[in-house]
Design goal:
globular; 4 helices; about 30% helix
Length: about 140
């Protein structure tokens, strides 16, 4: 994988500064790295009707899909205000899996806390995932 881990983490941290999180004050940023060198970011967007809130990863995937980026996902960085590294929630794992499946990749996921970064593959966070191939 050819990408700069630190640059991806910094892109996620920068995205977190643009979060709209007036209810939880838990600003999350996500950055997606693609094989072509591009990085797409997103931040969480909360809503007074909590169930309508959007996670940072979902926002980033939506931006990528809207821009026609539909393959080549090689890495994801997720960061928030916690000391411990945070991981994508279950919904975001599924959304990331859909994007990864379009390019037949298993992206590295950088779970970033204020003092530590944990690395894992998406398949480790979502084993035996349901995806496009499951529908055939």
């Amino acid at each position: 994988m050819n990408f700069d881990k630190q640059a991806l983490i910094e892109a996620a941290r920068d995205a977190a500064t643009r979060a709209y999180a007036p209810y939880s004050a838990f600003n999350v940023g996500a950055a997606l790295a693609f094989a072509d060198g591009s990085i797409v970011t997103g931040s969480n967007v909360e809503n007074a009707s909590y169930g309508l809130s959007l996670c940072a990863e979902t926002v980033a995937v939506s931006k990528a899909m809207n821009d026609g980026v539909r393959g080549g996902l090689i890495a994801v960085a997720v960061t928030g205000p916690a000391v411990e590294p945070i991981t994508p929630c279950g919904r975001c794992r599924q959304v990331l899996n859909e994007l990864a499946a379009l390019g037949d990749t298993d992206p590295l996921v950088l779970c970033v806390g204020s003092e530590e970064v944990r690395e894992t593959q998406l398949s480790g966070l979502l084993p035996r995932a349901f995806g496009p191939a499951s529908l055939t």
